[in-house]
Amino acid sequence: MKKKIVVGMTGASGAIYGIRLIEALNKLNIESHVVISSSAVKTIHHETDYTINQVESLCSHLYDSNDIGATISSGSFLVDGMIIAPCSIKTLSSVANSFNDNLITRAADVSLKERRKLVLMVRETPLHLGHLKLMQTVTENGAVILPPVPSFYHHPKLLDDIVAQSVGKALDQFRIEADLFERWGGLEEN
Known about the structure:
alpha/beta; six-stranded parallel β-sheet; globular
């Protein structure tokens, strides 16, 4: 069966993470089921050189964020899991509290109830105790919190090197090798 990943893009800063994720899935011939919130549309416009039409054209399947009846809103629709990139604190809060008022949070809730992998690339800093408690709750429910925190052992030269490493780490959660970054090879003694 062909791999299928649900991708939710929210309005948090870091729209490029979602875009690069969808591009990587395309390159790997993995079916993407994408929901882009209205706030994410604004962030894409503000932070990137992509048009919303360009982003939408990358998606295998695109859903309206208000379509609670979409296929991905049901556990009977088989997917390998979901990544929310970027994940706003509002979305984190909704997932933590099972507040399924849009398709992104409903699909995330379905991932948790079906015991499928759910990865949240939470984009906020600094974090207060309320944020941390929400992260604890979703982790206890089975989600993975994967903030896009860059590593530097691979000596990134471009912003895209940093983005690619975080996207690669998210795909690692699904055992998907996208060859997006240089993996840690250990320290070499001089």
